[in-house]
Write a structure and sequence with these properties.
The chain is mainly alpha-helical. The protein is built from five helices and no strands. It folds into two domains: 125 residues, no CATH class; 46 residues, no CATH class.
């Protein structure tokens, strides 16, 4: 790689990363799932912490200095104003028949959950790949040559004729092979 020119070296490095992601697709998909789960869990944890602080604040007031109390009340007024503006925007949107007003936190939470669902639905994480719609359904299963030969008909050369009749029956009944 060192003998190549600089642009080609950069391309080789980028190609090695892409190839690694392609070859070890399951590993990277599981990493994306873990990251998305971590984000959703941290969001839920922050929400729970906020609720517990709000409940504890109502029960057990914190002792603050007068300056801190003034600053806190200023922040509280700002939050109340912001809440009133959001409620007014939601009312206006409902009156106009538009989609409901959605705060950024809810959008973020919904986006995080969608990210988690997308990460979990990666095709490489499926145990068995989905069968395509046009896949042929075989008359005999592919279990190997150890099939039981209980019937004379299944051990004689006429088995091909039986299979052709079965295929014809399936085609007539459904209009195509299943």
């Amino acid at each position: 790689d060192e003998m190549c020119e600089m642009r080609h070296q950069k391309w080789l490095q980028a190609h090695a990363k892409r190839r690694d992601r392609h070859v070890h697709e399951v590993y990277y998909s599981l990493g994306r799932v873990a990251d998305a789960e971590r984000v959703v869990a941290s969001h839920a944890e922050k929400l729970e912490l906020t609720r517990s602080i709000a409940e504890a604040g109502a029960l057990d007031p914190v002792k603050m200095t007068e300056t801190a109390q003034r600053g806190f009340s200023k922040v509280k007024r700002g939050l109340n104003t912001l809440s009133m503006i959001r409620n007014a925007a939601a009312d206006r949107a409902a009156a106009e028949g538009k989609a409901a007003f959605e705060p950024a936190k809810l959008k973020e939470e919904r986006a995080n959950k969608a990210r988690l669902e997308k990460a979990q639905s990666a095709t490489c994480l499926e145990l068995r790949p989905l069968t395509p719609k046009g896949a042929a359904k075989h008359i005999r299963s592919w279990k190997g040559p150890e099939g039981t030969l209980r019937l004379l008909r299944s051990s004689t050369p006429w088995i091909d004729q039986d299979e052709m009749r079965e295929l014809g029956r399936q085609t007539r009944s459904t209009g195509a092979l299943r």
